[in-house]
Design goal:
By secondary structure, this protein is α+β, with helices and mostly antiparallel strands. It has 2 domains: 63 residues, Orthogonal Bundle (Arc Repressor Mutant, subunit A); 174 residues, Chorismate lyase. It contains 7 helices and 10 strands. The chain has a 6-stranded antiparallel beta sheet, with helices on both faces. Strands 1-2 form a two-stranded antiparallel ribbon. A hairpin with a 2-residue loop joins strand 5 and strand 6. The longest helix is centred in the N-terminal third of the chain and has 16 residues. The C terminus is likely disordered.
């Protein structure tokens, strides 16, 4: 990595440094390679260590770098492509083994979910937690909110707690004729419970995919899936061309 003149650049120094470092990661470093220490990098680019740390933190947020205690800062592998369009016309739990049911409880949903379900704020619903695995690593944690009225046969099943009850809720939901669904994607911060399951720190950047399931002319379930923003990109398959891609792939396509 060579030096660069930062003083005349109108944008923040750390942002320009981030761009320079990103180019160097593409051309000079291999995945998993350890970067020089902060003192050496700051001296090479003629910036304060605080500026360097801001640039490194931004690259970490973008999934270009990984910081591991006792190892240092290494070049991260490309993001894993995760297709969120394959279940477009199916109920959750019917499209393969990407998702694993973990547990099921009965809790009052967040206010935003209650509005989507058209339920009272304090009305408890079935809450199914699932984990999505890709290449052996957890990339998403999901909470599926299902009102009791959507699965009236569940009370007669007497399924035990935990994953077995979660699977029972999913099976009962499939008795309804799915009329459609819609999705919204937004940037968010990992909550403590999701962060723990995804091996991230609370507050880490995540991509939140909210899905509404329609049947009988109403919303019968809402899923809120939290995807790791640092290790995966979301693709939408046949439902559209929208993709959240690793910038390295964008460069290769240009």
């Amino acid at each position: 990595m060579g030096t660069t003149q930062l003083e005349s650049v109108p944008e923040p120094k750390y942002w320009h440094l981030k761009t320079v470092l990103s180019d160097a990661l593409d051309s000079e470093f291999a995945v998993g390679e350890i970067l020089p220490n902060e003192r050496e990098l700051a001296a090479r680019f003629g910036v304060a260590r605080a500026t360097l740390r801001q640039a490194l933190e931004q690259l970490e947020l973008e999934g270009r770098l990984q910081r591991r205690r006792g190892v240092g800062t290494t070049v991260a592998p490309p993001r894993v492509g995760v297709d969120v369009g394959t279940e477009r016309n199916a109920w959750p739990g019917t499209a393969g083994g990407a998702w694993q049911a973990v547990e099921c409880g009965e809790t009052a949903p967040p206010a935003a979910v209650a509005r989507l379900l058209d339920t009272d704020r304090d009305e408890e619903v079935y809450t199914v937690r699932r984990i999505r695995m890709t290449r052996g690593q957890p990339v998403a944690a999901e909470l599926l909110y299902v009102p009791a009225g959507s699965v009236p046969g569940l009370t007669a099943i007497g399924a035990p707690s935990g994953a077995a009850r979660a699977r029972a809720v999913l099976r009962e939901l499939q008795h309804l004729a799915l009329e459609g669904q819609d999705r919204a994607v937004e940037l968010g911060s990992a909550r403590a419970d999701d962060a723990k399951q995804l091996d991230r720190l609370p507050g880490a950047p995540v991509l939140v995919v909210t899905t509404r399931y329609y049947a009988e002319g109403r919303t019968v379930a809402v899923a809120v899936a939290t995807y790791r923003a640092d290790t995966c990109r979301l693709t939408f398959g046949e439902t559209g061309t929208v993709e959240i891609t690793h910038h390295e792939e964008q460069r290769a396509a240009s």
